[in-house]
Design brief:
single chain, mainly alpha, Nucleotidyltransferase, domain 5, two-stranded parallel ribbon, 4 helices, globular
């Protein structure tokens, strides 16, 4: 998400898709409240990957015309399947 948001000019209206409901919820629902509370959540414990959350949230806020949306994985969406293939190939090469 971070790399994708970095590629988008700040004033571009664009749809950004992810198959992670967690990422969508963090960026569109939860992060604003966490930020208001000093990057703390209601439940005890730290926010996982806080530095990444803060970076992604800042990028999303700087691109108000970017519409971040969830898409179900492995349902034949061309670009979701392509992204999955790239991630799988990367994991094979790295691990």
């Amino acid at each position: 998400m971070i790399a994708g948001l970095q590629m988008i000019p700040a004033d571009s209206p664009v749809d950004v898709y992810t198959d992670s409901q967690l990422v969508v919820n963090i960026l569109t629902k939860w992060a604003s409240g966490w930020k208001e509370k000093g990057w703390k959540k209601k439940s005890p414990g730290p926010i996982a990957n806080l530095e990444l959350v803060q970076e992604a949230y800042a990028l999303a806020q700087a691109r108000p015309k970017a519409n971040i949306q969830w898409i179900k994985a492995h349902m034949g969406n061309r670009w979701n399947e392509y992204a999955d293939a790239l991630a799988t190939a990367y994991r094979r090469d790295v691990f």
